[in-house]
């Protein structure tokens, strides 16, 4: 049953995305908000499909912690799920995302239309000065920056691998940081075909104010995100003990890759 539900969801998910991109083509001639609206429609419709087909519901916590205006939104990254959920809660934003996504026909066009920031991850720290300047320009427009501090999706339960670059962005932009925790990898793991029913939770934690030393900020951010994400995972496992196997599999996968 999980296989059939997952198969049906994947077909519906990509069919929905393709249809929306075709219908929304005129948005490419408009201002960035038109492309951003497409992203939000895709996000809401994807949540609907997950609920009705897979039985995967959602819960948003801590929405009152989201500030207005410029902020670094530093989110745990376990799944595709959060990539279309985060835009639902920000009026104007830009992701830092891998350059390959911008090169995808149609999908990449909308990313460019929404003025998202594509980077070549192979260049590593060499990109930092450019990222700092782009982020400052972003904040000057009153927009928010979405960043995954680990750089890529990690299995639920895997040890963290945060990159220090986010701390340098924090220092150079003098911006507050909004840490975000989640447990989405329990239900829609990276590179997994099978999706599981349950409740995926994203939690916006209290912002970290600007002005801390980079190392202090980095440790505080990581501790908050990891502690809250571990708590959300534990809550889900308590409701459905079979999810413990997903956590253990994630740990083994991380150990094998290390």
UniProtKB/TrEMBL annotation:
Parts of the chain that traverse the membrane: 6-30
The protein, known as: 1-acyl-sn-glycerol-3-phosphate acyltransferase
One Pfam assignment: Acyltransferase
Ranges where the Phospholipid/glycerol acyltransferase domain occurs: 71-185
SMART domains: PlsC
Source species taxonomy: Bacteria, Pseudomonadati, Pseudomonadota, Alphaproteobacteria, Hyphomicrobiales
Molecular function via GO: 1-acylglycerol-3-phosphate O-acyltransferase activity
Swiss-Prot/TrEMBL GO biological process terms: phosphatidic acid biosynthetic process
Record key words, sorted: Acyltransferase, Membrane, Transferase, Transmembrane, Transmembrane helix
Pathway the protein takes part in: Lipid metabolism
């Amino acid at each position: 049953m999980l296989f059939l539900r997952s198969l049906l969801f994947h077909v519906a998910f990509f069919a929905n995305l393709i249809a929306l991109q075709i219908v929304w083509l005129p948005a490419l001639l408009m201002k960035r908000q038109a492309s951003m609206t497409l992203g939000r429609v895709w996000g809401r419709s994807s949540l609907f499909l997950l609920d009705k087909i897979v039985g995967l519901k959602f819960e948003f916590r801590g929405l009152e912690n989201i500030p207005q205006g410029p902020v670094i939104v530093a989110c745990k990254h376990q799944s595709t799920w959060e990539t279309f959920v985060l835009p639902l809660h920000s009026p104007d934003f830009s992701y830092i995302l891998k350059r390959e996504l911008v090169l995808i026909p149609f999908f990449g066009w909308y990313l460019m239309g929404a003025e998202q920031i594509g980077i070549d991850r192979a260049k590593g720290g060499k990109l930092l000065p450019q990222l700092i300047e782009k982020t400052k320009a972003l904040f000057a427009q009153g927009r928010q920056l979405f960043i995954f501090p680990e750089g890529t999706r990690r299995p639920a339960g895997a040890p963290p691998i945060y990159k220090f670059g986010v701390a340098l962005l924090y220092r150079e932009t003098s911006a507050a940081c909004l840490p975000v925790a989640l447990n989405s990898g329990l239900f829609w793991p990276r590179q997994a075909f099978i999706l599981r029913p349950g409740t995926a939770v994203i939690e916006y934690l209290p912002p970290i104010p600007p002005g801390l030393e980079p190392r202090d900020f980095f440790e505080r951010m990581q501790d908050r995100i990891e502690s809250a994400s571990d708590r959300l995972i534990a809550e889900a496992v308590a409701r459905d003990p079979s999810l413990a196997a997903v956590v253990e599999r994630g740990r083994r996968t991380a150990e094998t890759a290390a």
